[in-house]
Write a structure and sequence with these properties.
Elements lengths: L1 H6 L11 H15 L10 H8 L3 H13 L3 E4 L3 E4 L4 E4 L2 E3 H7 L4 E11 L3 H7 L7 E10 L2 E10 L16 H9 L5 E10 L2 H7 L6 E11 L2 E11 L3 E4 L8 H5 L4 E3 L1
Parallel strand pairs: 3-11, 4-12
Antiparallel strand pairs: 1-2, 5-6, 6-7, 7-10, 8-9, 9-10
Length: about 260
């Protein structure tokens, strides 16, 4: 496949667009149409010879595509086509359902389920007396067998007694509906950019310092607080899509709720 992708190309010429921009477009086309995810792109020398450009032009084009998430580099091995990012629309849906809708097989690795005293702000959210425990659940969410997100949440001990007796390797939202007769119907959500520390990097199979997308959610069932959870998604495999409608009331535009979690 590499031979087909390179030998049919002609050298890049001087024109209205800089050479590195032209090469960037050609490599992006190659990654989209000629090479599968995780396939190696041609070496720098091959690209120099095929397109008649300098090493600095090749490196500039590749670095731009790495920044765009189209390519990724593995130290000592080369540069490869990055897997396509999973795109999520902000809405109330479980991670499990959302991945299935996108053709990905979801799975979950449960790391922790404990009843422990939460931080003061979490206790206040659940209206718990000082020292009363809440459920602490930590899980790694996977899509097609690859880590997508690390999820750390607090769950109401009042609404969800004996939560630790259930299988939390499935959708918690489905479990809440089936076993407790509850529906997660409203939520407040905040999205922010972070970087992975050592522990998070290990869970997500990334490097410390790599970007992650942190999604913090506070959910309710019929007005009663049910969960406080933070999901940290791999920045190279996940993106959020937000549709804006000018017909929305101003108050609705100021705050966006929803997302993909349990």
């Amino acid at each position: 496949m590499r031979d087909q992708a390179t030998t049919r190309q002609r050298p890049i010429r001087e024109g209205s667009e800089p050479k590195h921009v032209q090469l960037r477009a050609e490599l992006a086309r190659m990654a989209a149409n000629d090479l599968p995810a995780d396939a190696a792109i041609p070496s720098e020398r091959e690209l120099m010879e095929t397109y008649g450009v300098s090493r600095s032009t090749v490196r500039r084009a590749i670095e731009a595509l790495i920044a765009d998430g189209v390519l990724h580099r593995v130290q000592g091995k080369g540069t490869f086509v990055a897997p396509p990012r999973v795109q999520s629309h902000l809405h109330l849906a479980s991670f499990t359902l959302d991945m299935r809708r996108r053709g990905k097989t979801p799975s979950t690795r449960v790391l922790r389920v404990d009843a422990v005293a939460p931080p003061a702000e979490v206790a206040a959210w659940f209206a718990l007396a000082p020292g009363r425990p809440a459920w602490r659940v930590e899980r790694v969410r996977l899509a097609a067998g690859k880590p997508m997100a690390f999820e750390a949440g607090w769950y109401s001990p009042t609404l969800l007694p004996d939560l630790d007796h259930h299988d939390l390797g499935q959708s918690i939202y489905a479990l809440v509906g089936r076993e407790y007769g509850l529906t997660v119907d409203t939520a407040d959500q905040t999205v922010r950019a972070e970087v992975a520390d050592g522990d998070l990097a290990r869970h997500l199979a990334v490097k410390p310092g790599d970007p992650v997308l942190a999604v913090e959610r506070s959910s309710r069932s019929a007005g009663t607080p049910l969960e406080r959870v933070v999901s940290q998604y791999r920045g190279d495999r996940y993106e959020l899509h937000i549709s804006l409608d000018s017909t929305l009331h101003q108050d609705a535009q100021d705050t966006t709720t929803g997302g993909d979690h349990p």
